[in-house]
Design a protein that fits this description.
The protein has about 375 residues and is α/β, with parallel strands linked by helices. The chain has 18 helices and 5 strands. A 5-stranded parallel β-sheet has the order 2-1-3-4-5, with helices on both faces. Strand 3, helix 2 and strand 4 form a beta-alpha-beta unit. It is elongated. Bound molecules: fe (ii) ion (2 copies).
């Protein structure tokens, strides 16, 4: 989902609009210079009307004439008559009070951008998985908003979500989960949900207790929470990152520590997974370069799920690697990953691989499920 933000002059310090790039892939435009060409690929236009001149509002209106269906959200002070009149001049727009809080702004944008997941789901998505997906998306929304503020994490929603994911994995299996999750437009949401599903399936395969299964699944959902401090224009950048951008992305583990450290409602194991999931057994990982026994089993397991997800997911700059090839790569990371756990991960990979094969067959048969294949 692409959002264009337009303002007449620099955004003020402390403005909610400045935080939009952490929630949506956004581009900032000057009101005086924006053209209809800039707006073609956009799904929402946020117009900050503070101190906008009549002349520049007119030039924006001209640019908008070519994209009449673009949704518009005007940020105004309702006490400022000039801004309210300027907003009305754009025709059908939503209004947001400038002094409103960030959570309300993001919720408003979500409402305006809400994709119709029901239409996006693969036809074969089972009901339990469908419900678990919708619950998990709502939960991730709450997690991201809590991470951006000092509000506590939504523990009741988290517990409900873990129960939904557990039911979906138990009843429908990991492949159905991964297929459903792929329809989400945000890479970060997709990635977190894939890692969470794989983590849940892995913990089940390992015969871990229900409590441990929940912890590993929650670790999957929250392991990249530090990325909420990195603008999406960097996280979703189509090309290669600059060295500075790479350095910033690597800091997501430390941002994760900052976000979670004072939150007593989040289990210690989950905090560890958020900070240490890029560490390797031979000490070659980051952020601390810890090694061996300093990395506990849950972290080792989530690292395997995270790397496997990263290899098997499609990004704008790389194609997905087939599950069996990704597994071979995990096996080749001898000094970095716990190879006992990698071996134990194999049944999960086989399920995923079978699911990928099934999807290919379904595509060949024009979307109709072929007989003789497993999902
Ligand atoms: Fe990460
Ligand atoms: Fe990750």
């Amino acid at each position: 989902m692409n959002v264009a933000v337009v303002s007449d002059g620099p955004l003020k310090e402390g403005s909610n609009v400045r935080n939009i790039p952490f929630f949506y892939t956004s581009r900032l435009f000057s009101m005086a210079e924006i053209s209809s060409r800039n707006l073609q690929e956009m799904h929402l236009l946020v117009i900050e009307l503070e101190d906008a001149t009549g002349e520049h509002v007119e030039s924006l209106k001209t640019a908008l004439a070519d994209v009449p269906d673009l949704s518009k959200l005007c940020i105004v002070s309702k006490a400022n008559r000039r801004e309210v009149v300027q907003a009305a001049a754009f025709g059908r727009v939503e209004i947001f009070e400038r002094d409103g809080d960030l959570t309300a702004l993001v919720r408003k944008m979500r409402d305006m951008l809400q994709p119709d997941f029901e239409a996006l789901f693969p036809e074969t998505t089972p009901e339990t998985t469908r419900q678990a997906f919708l619950q998990t998306v709502a939960c991730l929304d709450e997690i991201v908003l809590a991470a951006a503020s000092s509000r506590p994490m939504p523990v009741r929603t988290l517990a409900r979500t873990l129960h939904h994911i557990y039911s979906a994995l138990t009843r429908d299996g990991i492949s159905a989960w991964l297929s459903a999750v792929r329809c989400h437009h945000s890479h970060t949401y997709r990635h977190s949900m894939m890692v969470a599903g794989l983590a849940g399936a892995f913990a089940q395969t390992l015969g871990w207790s229900h409590k441990e299964q929940e912890l590993l699944t929650l670790g999957g959902l929250m392991h990249d929470i530090g990325k909420t401090r990195i603008p999406l224009s960097i996280l979703d950048k189509p090309g290669e990152l600059t060295p500075d951008e790479t350095e910033l992305v690597r800091r997501h583990t430390l941002f994760g520590r900052d976000i979670l450290k004072n939150r007593l409602e989040i289990p210690f194991e989950v905090k560890k997974m958020a900070v240490q999931h890029h560490e390797f057994l031979d000490g070659s990982g980051y952020p601390q370069g810890i090694a061996g026994d300093q990395i506990d089993t849950m972290v080792r397991a989530i690292t395997i799920c995270d790397i496997f997800t990263a290899m098997t997911e499609t990004r704008s700059y790389k194609a997905a690697i087939p599950p069996r090839n990704a597994y071979a790569d995990l096996c080749s990371m001898k000094t970095q990953l716990d190879q006992d756990l990698v071996r134990a991960f194999q049944p999960v990979v086989l399920s995923v691989d079978l699911g990928a094969l099934n999807r290919t067959v379904e595509t060949l048969f024009d979307g109709k499920k072929a007989t003789g294949t497993a999902g």
